C-alpha cells in the first residue's frame, strides 16, 4: 500500500520522521533509520559555533509508572549538537547522496543576528537538504544565549528571524514551536508571516523530573545541582494533541503541521494525523525503543487505512477536527439529544399501551 504523502512539495515515503535529537545525532544513525524504513529525519539542531555548546552528564531523567515501571515521562537538559558545522555539512551531503528519496530536514538555531542566521542558512542549503526546521523552542541552556524558546516565546522575533531565513532560502521552512507559552497560535502565525510554510509542534515542556529524597537534590543532578529541563514522552501527548489541534484550526489551510510529542506507536501517530498533522516526529520513543519501531508504525497505519477505507494518507489528515466545538454548543447538543430520546421513550410507551390495530388505524390516512 502507498503510504507516501506530499507536504510543501516534498514527497515523504511515509509520514514518520525522526524528531530532532539523539535519533538524528549524525549521518550514521540517520542512514540506519532510513535503512529501517523511516520516511524522513530532522537532524539534531546545528549552529555555527559548536565550541559554545558544552553538554553535561547526566542530562536525562525518567518518570516511571508506579505500577509497571514503564517510562511515561522523560526530562532532558541536553543542548543542541556539539559537533562542528563543517562535519555536519559533509554529512548532510553524504546522506542526501545515498538516500535521495528520503526527506532530510536540517534543524538550525543561531543567536539573534541576521548575518549569522543567513550564513548558516546558505551553508546548509548548499548541501542539498530538503527543508529547514527553525528551532525556536529548545527550553533550556540555549535560552541563556537568547536562543531557542527565548525566540519562540516572542512572536515578533519569530517573524523577524523566519524572514531572515526565508529571504535567502529556496527550500521549505518549518518553524518548531515551544509549548511553554499560553497561546501557541500567536508565535506560529508570526513565523508564517515571516515565510514559514510549516509548523512543527511541540518541543519539550519545562519541567523538573523529581527530587532525590536521600540527597534532597533535584534531578538530573550534575555536581549536586540542576536546571529545569524539557519534558517529553507519553505524558506530554495530550498537551501536544491539544496544541496541534489549535494550530490546525487556527493557521491558514496551506500551512503544514508536523506533530510531535509522546508518540510511541501507530495509534498515537494516527491521533496526531486525525488532528491535522501531515507528518509526525518521534524522538524519546526512538531513544527508548529503537528505530525498529517503524515496522509497527507502517503496519498500523496501513491497517487503519484498510479498516476505515482510506486510499491515501492525505485523506486522514485533519479528519477529526470537525468534532471540536464550544462548550455551549455541547450543552445544546446534549439537551437536544435528551429531548429526542424522551420523545422516543414516550412513543415506545404509546405503542406498548395501545392495541396494534388501533395504532395502525391512527397512522393510516384512508
Ligand atoms: C534528549 C533530547 C534531545 C533533544 N534535542 C533536540 C534538538 O536538538 N532540537 C530540537 O528541535 N528538539 C530537540 N528535542 C525535542 C524533540 O525533538 C521533541 O520535540 C520532544 O522531545 C517531544 O517529542 P517526543 O516525546 O517524541 O520526544 C530533544 C528531545 C530530547 C528528549
3D architecture notes:
- It is a single chain.
- By secondary structure, the protein is an alpha/beta fold.
- It has twelve helices and 16 strands.
- It has helices spanning 27-36, 85-98, 114-125, 149-152, 155-168, 185-193, 237-250, 266-274, 284-289, 293-308, 327-353, 356-362, and strands spanning 5-7, 10-12, 16-18, 40-42, 60-64, 71-76, 103-108, 131-135, 173-176, 198-201, 205-207, 210-212, 217-219, 229-232, 256-260, 279-282.
- Strands 3-4-7-8-9-10-15-16 form an eight-stranded parallel barrel, surrounded by eight helices. A four-stranded antiparallel β-sheet has the order 5-6-14-11, with no helix packed on it. It has a two-stranded antiparallel sheet with strand order 1-2.
- The longest helix has 27 residues, at 327-353.
- The radius of gyration is 25 Å and the shape is elongated.
- It starts with a strand and ends with a helix.
- Residues 19-22, 44-45, 74, 76, 78, 80, 107, 135, 138, 176, 203-204, 232-233, 236, 260-263, 282-285 line the site of flavin mononucleotide.
- Flavin mononucleotide binds at residues 19-22, 44-45, 74, 76, 78, 80, 107, 135, 138, 176, 203-204, 232-233, 236, 260-263, 282-285.
Amino acid at each position: 500500500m502507498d503510504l507516501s504523502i506530499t507536504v510543501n512539495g516534498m514527497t515523504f515515503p511515509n509520514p514518520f520522521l525522526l524528531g530532532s535529537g539523539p535519533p538524528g545525532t549524525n549521518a550514521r544513525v540517520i542512514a540506519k533509520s532510513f535503512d529501517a524504513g523511516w520516511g524522513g529525519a530532522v537532524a539534531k539542531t546545528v549552529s555555527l559555533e559548536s565550541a559554545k555548546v558544552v553538554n553535561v552528564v547526566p542530562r536525562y531523567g525518567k518518570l516511571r509508572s508506579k505500577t509497571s515501571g514503564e517510562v511515561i515521562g522523560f526530562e532532558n537538559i541536553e543542548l543542541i549538537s556539539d559537533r562542528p558545522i563543517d562535519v555536519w555539512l559533509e554529512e548532510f551531503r553524504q546522506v542526501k547522496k545515498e538516500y535521495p528519496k528520503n526527506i532530510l530536514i536540517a534543524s538550525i538555531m543561531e543567536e539573534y543576528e541576521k548575518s549569522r542566521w543567513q550564513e548558516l542558512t546558505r551553508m546548509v542549503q548548499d548541501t542539498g537538504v530538503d527543508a529547514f526546521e527553525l528551532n525556536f523552542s529548545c527550553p533550556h541552556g540555549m535560552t541563556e544565549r537568547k536562543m531557542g524558546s527565548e525566540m519562540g516565546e516572542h512572536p515578533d522575533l519569530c517573524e523577524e528571524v523566519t524572514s531572515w531565513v526565508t529571504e535567502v532560502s529556496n527550500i521549505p521552512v518549518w518553524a518548531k514551536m515551544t509549548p511553554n507559552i499560553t497561546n501557541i497560535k500567536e508565535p506560529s502565525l508570526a513565523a508564517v508571516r515571516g515565510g514559514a510554510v510549516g509548523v512543527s509542534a511541540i518541543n519539550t515542556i519545562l519541567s523538573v523530573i523529581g527530587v532525590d529524597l536521600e540527597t534532597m537534590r533535584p534531578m538530573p543532578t550534575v555536581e549536586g545541582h540542576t536546571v529545569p529541563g524539557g519534558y517529553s514522552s507519553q505524558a506530554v501527548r495530550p498537551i501536544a494533541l491539544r496544541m496541534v489541534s489549535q494550530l490546525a484550526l487556527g493557521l491558514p489551510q496551506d500551512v503544514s503541521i508536523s506533530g510531535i510529542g509522546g508518540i510511541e506507536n501507530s495509534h498515537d501517530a494516527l491521533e496526531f494525523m486525525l488532528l491535522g498533522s501531515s507528518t509526525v516526529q518521534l524522538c524519546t520513543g526512538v531513544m527508548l525503543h529503537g528505530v525498529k519501531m517503524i515496522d509497527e508504525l507502517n503496519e498500523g497505519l496501513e491497517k487503519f487505512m484498510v479498516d476505515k477505507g482510506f486510499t491515501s494518507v492525505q485523506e486522514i489528515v485533519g479528519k477529526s477536527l470537525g468534532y471540536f466545538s464550544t462548550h455551549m454548543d455541547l450543552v445544546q447538543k446534549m439537551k437536544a439529544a435528551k429531548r429526542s430520546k424522551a420523545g422516543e421513550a414516550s412513543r415506545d410507551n404509546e405503542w406498548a399501551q395501545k392495541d396494534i390495530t388501533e395504532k395502525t388505524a391512527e397512522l393510516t390516512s384512508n
